[in-house]
Every structure is written in structure tokens, then in C-alpha cells.
Design a protein that fits this description.
By secondary structure, the chain is α+β, with helices and mostly antiparallel strands. The chain has helices at residues 46-56, 74-82, 93-100, 134-140, 186-195, 213-216, 219-228, 295-308, 317-321; strands at 12-14, 18-20, 26-28, 31-33, 39-40, 61-63, 70-71, 86-90, 109-114, 123-129, 151-156, 160-164, 175-180, 201-206, 209-210, 233-242, 245-246, 254-259, 263-265, 271-273, 281-293.
């Protein structure tokens, strides 16, 4: 198995982790996904594991199977359940602790419920773009009106104050546009965008990225799911399409749904810095961010990023981005 059957990451490697399963038995697993944390037995089959997990997720309460060819703690189960649009509910105090302190040594057991029917938190939508891209970004907005009433577009240009723009499907004053010079610092631009949110959570996208309206509808529920586990950040698979072809750099997780106070760091390849570290974030698999690229841009990007932030341009990623997706 090259790619994880839960999150699709090609990050499976050796581990010494164990899970306490039925009757208090500690079961050792030789492999783990370094992205989502699922544990794998020797010779575990990707399709069989996914089918088995999907079946177990159909019950109102998830009970780990002590003999399954995989194992997961509650933190990983939360991510796995989102693929089917489900949220987890810890059944006791120990479960709440397990969500806050991954990876727990106990096999997962939790209640399940549709995310669409769970609690919701208001979420702002923020978009970064160049002035020449603004009209296209505005034209794509009506599809997102079903889940947010606050949109901010931050242009890379001479500083200008917020102004409102009418957009079909949104109430008056809901869509605002401002400008600020990027000046080669993507983290600073994202932080400025975070500060413009009216709500406690913000989803950020770039002009060359898109999210289906169906995926967007679950953002308020995902924010509530994160808060229930004291989380402040949610990551999403990003599907890089280079000249229309899905790249092998997948899922390319991007943590774009964040509490307003979360700060990004890194002039390029910026990431949120979480108070308390990575356990305060988790990955949702309910729908990817689609990244629209062309080969010429990919070839130039790494060199440009390396010039902006020496040592962090990831020139080695160019080849992988240009390689088609393979399981």
C-alpha cells in the first residue's frame, strides 16, 4: 500500500505504536500513515481496509474491530469520519482527552452523526488575489452564498480601505474588497486577511483555487466540530491540477479554516502556527480544494519562491507536481 486508505497520503512508514483493543490487549502495528495517523498491519490491502471502515462507520456508534487490518485512535477516527460527512462524539471524559492529546493508546470508540445536522459556527470566507483576477473571483462567489454571509477579498496592490461590492446571493454589505501590497510575504498577507473577518472563523482561498458549494456548506459544522475538541485549525486535501491533470502531489493538505486569531508564518509555503501545536488542528476529507495550475507556472514557481525565501522554495517539489497522480 503506497497511499493511505484513509487520507490518500503517500506517507506510510514504520512505527512502534500500539493500540489497546478488546479485553485490554495491546496490539502492535508495524506501519502508520504519517499524515492522518492510521495504523496498518502487515500486507493490509487498501481497498479491503476502506470497505471495512466504511461499513463500521455506518453504525450510530463506532466500535473498533480488534482483528481489523488497521487501527485508529479517536483523533484519526474524527478525520476518517469526515470522508462520509460524519462527525464524532466522544462517549466519555477519556474520549474528550483523546481528541486533545493524539495519538491516544486506545482504539477508537465514539458516537457518529451527520455533520450537516450538528452545531454550526459562523464562518467568513477570505480570498487573496491580484487586481486583474478580482472580477473572476467575484463572478464565482454566488455559489458560496449558502454557507457564509461575510466575504473579504484582499488584493495585492497599493493599500486601500475596505469597500462593499454587490454580489448576487449575498445580503448588502456582505462582500468587501480591500488592497494591501503582498511584498513577497504570503504569511503577512494571510494574517492581514484573517484580521478582516467579521466572524470567529475564516476559510481562506487563493484566486487559482476553488471549492465546491457542497463542500463549503459543511464549513460551519467543521468549525463547531473543531471547537468541541478545543481545535483552532482544519486542513483540507488540495488537488493540484496541472494543465488539467491531477498531480501526484496529493493530498497536499492546506490548513485554511482557522480561528480568526490564528497567525500564519513563512514568507512562502506559509502555514498556521497553532498554540499547543499540531494536535489543535485536524484534517477533513469531505471535499478537496482544487488548485488550478499550468506547467509553466509550476516550473517558475519554485525558483521564484526560493528567491523570496532562500531554503524554503521546495525546488524538489517541481518534479512531483508535474508527475500525474498514481496510487
Amino acid at each position: 500500500m503506497r497511499r493511505c486508505f484513509v487520507c490518500d497520503a503517500a506517507m506510510i512508514g514504520p512505527t512502534t505504536r500500539r493500540l489497546i483493543v478488546a479485553n485490554g490487549r495491546a496490539r502492535a502495528f508495524p506501519f502508520a500513515c504519517q499524515s492522518c495517523g492510521v495504523l496498518l498491519a502487515d500486507a493490509a490491502d487498501r481497498s479491503a481496509c476502506r470497505e471495512h471502515l466504511t461499513h463500521r462507520l455506518a453504525a450510530p456508534v463506532f466500535e473498533s474491530d480488534a482483528e481489523a487490518p488497521y487501527g485508529l485512535d479517536l483523533y484519526t477516527l474524527r478525520t476518517a469520519a469526515t470522508r462520509l460527512g460524519l462527525g464524532v462524539r466522544p462517549l466519555d471524559a477519556a474520549g474528550h482527552v483523546a481528541l486533545r492529546h493524539p495519538h491516544d493508546a486506545h482504539a477508537a470508540r465514539a458516537g457518529l452523526a451527520a455533520l450537516a445536522g450538528e452545531g454550526r459556527r459562523p464562518v467568513s470566507l477570505g480570498l487573496l488575489c491580484r487586481p486583474a483576477e478580482c472580477d473572476a473571483v467575484l463572478a464565482a462567489l454566488p455559489g458560496q452564498g449558502g454557507w457564509t454571509d461575510d466575504v473579504v477579498i484582499l488584493l495585492d496592490g497599493p493599500a486601500s480601505a475596505l469597500r462593499t461590492v454587490p454580489v448576487a446571493g449575498f445580503p448588502d454589505g456582505a462582500v468587501r474588497v480591500a488592497a494591501r501590497p503582498l511584498d513577497g510575504d504570503f504569511a503577512a498577507q494571510r494574517n492581514a486577511l484573517q484580521d478582516l473577518a467579521r466572524h470567529g472563523w475564516m476559510l481562506q482561498l487563493d484566486a487559482d483555487e476553488s471549492l465546491s458549494p457542497e463542500a463549503g456548506l459543511l464549513m460551519p459544522a467543521l468549525a463547531a466540530l473543531a471547537e468541541a475538541g478545543e481545535g483552532v485549525s482544519v486542513g483540507f486535501a488540495r488537488a493540484n491540477h496541472v494543465d488539467g491533470v491531477l498531480s501526484d502531489v496529493f493530498p497536499d493538505v492546506q490548513y485554511r479554516l482557522n480561528r480568526r486569531g490564528v497567525r500564519f508564518a513563512g514568507r512562502v509555503h506559509e502555514r498556521p502556527v497553532l498554540d499547543g501545536g499540531w494536535p489543535r488542528g485536524f484534517i477533513s476529507l469531505h471535499g478537496p480544494i482544487v488548485h488550478h495550475l499550468n506547467g509553466a507556472h509550476v516550473r517558475a514557481r519554485s525558483r521564484r519562491y526560493e528567491a523570496l525565501d532562500p531554503g524554503r522554495g521546495r525546488p524538489e517539489e517541481e518534479e512531483a507536481l508535474l508527475r500525474p497522480y498514481a496510487e
